[in-house]
């Protein structure tokens, strides 16, 4: 049985937010909730910016599951961490425990009232019948049941965001890293797409220490 995982390649991400838009459109995510977001460090510093698409990473040892007082979280046979909104009491413990900030709460509720938690489902729906109206209204579209991959990964224009069988995407990422090389070879266009895509690119001279 495949274990579903996400990997985001920071060397390919161009901060287009296509994954964010695809997720909201596919699942009709409520106002104030972002199941996926793009985080950029060193924003505005030329040559130092790095962006990464972040959502629920469907951890093998998920801290949200450990702290939930009502056990609304469960893990599918494919390793996807889901939750039951009918059980959730909106306590917010999961949001404090998650290192990725995945659990979200609607912003249109009364002050002090969190409402039902919402998060990335890896496009795997919820506990309701696959493809049912109730499942879509609570959790969005169940693409995995349709034999498809998450919409965010499918829509990534540079294929920075990969989603699917953990072993397969790990092999893809490993191959990319090997092609990039190390030291002065890791820079610019060749870093993201390999030298074959830009044969005229040359590595900058390495400054020798006196």
From TrEMBL:
Residues 4-34, 47-78, 79-108 form the 4Fe-4S ferredoxin-type domain. It comes from the Bacteria. Keywords: 4Fe-4S, Electron transport, Iron, Iron-sulfur, Metal-binding, Transport. Its cofactor is [4Fe-4S] cluster. PROSITE patterns: 4FE4S_FER_1 (PS00198), 4FE4S_FER_2 (PS51379). NCBIfam families: FDH3_beta (NF038355). This is Formate dehydrogenase FDH3 subunit beta. It comes from Herminiimonas aquatilis. The gene is fdh3B.
